[in-house]
Amino acid sequence: MSVLSSVLALGCALLVHQAASDDKAVSYSGYQVWTITTRSNEESQLVLNLRQLYGLDVWQWQEFQSADAPTDLLVPPQLIKELKLKLNEANISYVVKIEDLQSDINDENPKANSSSFDTKAAHKMDWISYHRLDDIYGYLNYLAATYPNLVELINIGTSYENRSLYLVRISNATAPDSQPAVWIDGGFHAREWISPALATYIIKQIVEEPANAKLLNNIDWYIMPVANPDGYEYSHVRSRLWRKTRSLTTSARCLGVDPNRNFDFKWGGSGSSSNPCSQVFKGSKAFSEVETLAYSKFIISKSKQIKLYLTLHSYGQKLLIPWGYDREYPSNFADMLALGNCAASKFKIFKYGVGNKVDLLYRAAGNSADWAKSIGIDYVYTVELPTRGFVVPASSITPIVQDFFPAIDVFATKIATLKV
């Protein structure tokens, strides 16, 4: 197949990826994920050129690469033969990380359609399977009804497709907004299902486990499990790899904006795109998305109270510290690094890297963590959870969330000492 034919074929594949029909889910049958390891700047540049030429979906990469920094690429079946040839000609090593992505998707969430659920139970949440938005919101409503003196369900607005934007406030304070607070969110990128799973697990541990009562001492918690509900639902029913929101754009075939490039701090800079078909499309303007606008308004209303900001993503096993718009460092970077290292020391199964976002990953202007730092929140981290990709078997949920939770105690111990 010629380069031109390959590009045209890939264009058709990406068109399907961008917008599934109303009655048929996108199939990733035959798609593979390759991990490519380069040994020089020349090899890294060649891989970058191939990515750009074929418009490949990059799952993981590092902008300022070390000699052995891996790049994970999603390879459509019609390009497998040609890309193998290109890499072999350049003597660049790679391994096939996922042989058939659709097989992994089929096996990811086996209990999702199980008929064994107890219909008499008060809610459907567990942490051995991934849950749709209704289950997650049902659990939040259950907690608010069951623990009214502890949990408040807050609706901060509606999404583009008219879904509620829910978060919970967890507090035993007698006076509102009188204590330092922690903000945690998940589900910014729709396909990163492990992040809402962790966010809801943290909620459960704080609210329902008596052994964690100390986490309520002198701290309020604001936790939003799904910041992008439209995209999250779409990733469940139409396209498993959907990342963005679901708003209309200037392109009839490419919907949605990357919400993590849509914030009004260094918006439109490096690591974002003005192309509506890009996975990192920044939107027509900062806060063009109703989801990011509502989110930002709420956080601003609590910005004097919120002292720690954790936004949960996948994947990479990293605690990332601003700034992400360029290779720059906030004035309290050393303090954030020390707290991040202390938190990471609690992980037993997975080893996390801790450091500046650009040093450990790449530039991403307009991201939510940079914005949170820019409005004065003291401690700000983007968490990249430890998975092998975006499609993570449900059996991995419990090990990942249980391993992470002890870090919450480290963060809480620090934040409880701060003044509002």
TrEMBL record:
Its cofactor is Zn(2+). SMART domains: Zn_pept (SM00631). Coiled coil: none annotated. The active site is at 384 (proton donor/acceptor). Residues 129-415 form the Peptidase M14 domain. This is Peptidase M14 domain-containing protein. Belongs to the peptidase M14 family. InterPro entries: CARBOXYPEPT_ZN_1, M14A-like_propep, M14A_act_pep, Peptidase_M14. Gene3D superfamilies: Metallocarboxypeptidase-like, Zn peptidases. Keywords: Carboxypeptidase, Disulfide bond, Hydrolase, Metal-binding, Metalloprotease, Protease, Signal, Zinc. Residues 1-21 form the signal peptide. CDD domains: M14_CP_A-B_like.
